[in-house]
Amino acid sequence: MAAMDLVYSRNDALDVNPQGGQSHLSEGGSDWLWAVMACFTLAFLVYYALSFRPHHGEKIFHYLFSIALL
């Protein structure tokens, strides 16, 4: 359990970037946004790697989808 405490204690995003205005981001919200960004990055890398595999004439569709993920 001590290893997980180290992981959770490293999230100092709210300390580095203080909240301003009326929109507030909780620590759980910061973790959720980080997880979503990681999923999109993984999806982009997978589709980018797979874009080198299609037959001639199909690559443009894979490139367009990879650009849309950015």
TrEMBL record:
<keyword id="KW-0472">Membrane</keyword>
<keyword id="KW-1133">Transmembrane helix</keyword>
<protein>
    <submittedName>
        <fullName>Uncharacterized protein</fullName>
    </submittedName>
</protein>
<feature type="transmembrane region" description="Helical">
    <location>
        <begin position="32"/>
        <end position="50"/>
    </location>
</feature>
<keyword id="KW-0812">Transmembrane</keyword>
